[in-house]
Amino acid sequence: MSRECCGPDQPVDARSGAGPVPGEEHPPGEHEELAPWWRDRALALPLVSGLLWVTGLLLGWLGLELSALIAHIMGLAAGAWTFAPGAIRRLVAGQGRGRLGVGLLMVIAAIGAVLLGHVGEAAALAFLFSIAETLEDRAMDRAKQGLRALLSLIPATARVSRLDGEQVVPAAEVREMDILVVGAGERIATDAVVVTGRSWLDTSPITGESTPVEVGSGDHVLAGSVNGSGTLTVEATADGRDNSLTQIVRLVEQAHAAKGERARLADRIARPLVPLVLIAAAIVAAFGFVIGDPNTWIERALVVLVAASPCALAIAVPVTVISAIGSASRLGVVIKSGVAFEQLGTISTVAFDKTGTLTRNQPRVVAVHTTAGRSRDDVLGMAAALEAASSHPLAEAITAAAPARSTATEVQEHPGHGLTGTVAGQAVRVGSPRWVDPGPLAEQARSLAAAGMSVVVVEADGRPAGVIGARDELRPEAAETIASLHGYGVTTVMLTGDNTLTAKAIAEQAGIVQVHAEQLPADKAAHIQRLTDAAPTAMIGDGINDAPALASATVGIAMGVTGSAAAIESADVAFTGTDLRLIPAALAHARRGRRIMTGNIALALAIIIVLFPLALLGVLGLAAVVLVHEIAEVVVIANGLRAARPRHRALPAPLPDRPTTPATGPAEAVRQ
Questions:
Q1: C-alpha distances out from residue 292 to 44, 280, 296, 613, 618, Å
Q2: What is the pLDDT of residues 225-249, one digit of tens each?
Q3: Out of 202, 239, 267, 353, which one is annotated catalytic?
Q4: Domain range summary for the chain, segments of one domain joined by +
């Protein structure tokens, strides 16, 4: 029966406490479908109970009292069978760890009604409680159904290239480094990197990005993506049972294990309420013996027992959280816990990392200034010869821009500064203006930095040869996202390790006013802590250096669920894609979920507050109280399921890239 009211009927996974492990119970490509209500076996006994109860009422109206009594007894037995054995078993075995369940209240009320001769009311109680509990369980299953359906994005089989030809194997048996062949229109079985071929991938079910993504040799592809018209050969980078998509499912299924503030509030109210209700009912019954009318007051005690039961309160929050988190995952937003979901709805400040978050982290050389006697190709060639030994993003930009380069020898990297080496007999240094003095090109270096570029100075034989400006382009949707956040009343801040001139230039393009540049990871974390002390703050980043700040924020948000492992581990929320417009959509979704949770708690408490005095004064009988109480519970469940339908417009297509224009003039920048 109900996991919230009556406790779990199945053991949970010992590692997370959140339920069975997705990869073990539901292999990739398979998920358990929720049967239509008319074929749901769990509804059979409650429906039989209801039919027998109605039959008993009709037989009684026809004057067939014995037949009516038999029908009501059978209806009571059918309904009670769904919750009474479990309630009694938990009470005797101590499975509830000292917590008395709502099911026990219903058992006591039904037994009392029978002893008082109200078999029909007892049958009504058993039917209404059992049907409400079964519908509640079905609602919880439905809330998780959308998440489980994500696994259907993984195909059942995959074509693996072997030495003796292609073989079709179950997707779950794909192993890392297997070579897969993906034809036109086929789904990719696991995370991989393209070996040969070129095509377009539809990643919208996974990342929320609405337009196909072009991929070619060397590009990473995600499990569940749909291939376009080309044929791809890809090398698996993850096993079929442990890829980015199964990770999303695993994270979200664990979400309801950590309860948020409102869930704890509901628990704090519901936990002591059950014994208090039992005490109150006992006092009411004892009062009847004192005044000499025990039958009347015992009956009222049973009605009070039902009226004050907190089942609706217990389910008020969990069904909302599970529904909202499941639907968020379909937007490309993975929320790791109920706590994170509720806190996400309180955010009033959002802090952004710059590189890789607001920008693409794909810098391109857009300007080169040289000293007299040096050509553009000379400067780029010397720099590229040294940078070929580095994996830094600026190195990739410089080597890509050099039409031809010599071979460098004796190359040494100086972390945080740059590189040294010998190129064509010349001693060459390449690095930031803080390490290599640009000399006569100082004004040009400052100008490039002021235009939002990172600056690299090239020195040959102790003399400046040139300065190179590389621009990491702002994401095309960044300005739109910042404007949208400001429209929600959210303050935005940039935290970056880049130099002040470059940071301010990027922030101005994005529309961010508060900029804190030249921040080390510890500085970012300390600044986030100060912001969090003042107001609920979210930090958004994607790199290892962002991990301390992500952990310090009220809510840490990692860009790209397959990005830096440290960032993902430290974050509370992860975006499977990189479209920044997911941020305002996620905040709006969480705020709406909090409103629904608050309404559910208020409604559940109002039902108890209203029904208790009416039951105590005898205004409502047992059947009427049961009916009102269970209808209210169904209303709470239906309201919670609304959180699965976020009110937001579909993400628009990505904006065109901004044109890059070379800048001239003065600057100072650092090598990132």
A1: 43, 19, 10, 21, 17
A2: 888 878 899 999 988 888 877 776 6
A3: 353
A4: 155-239, 334-359+475-576, 364-471
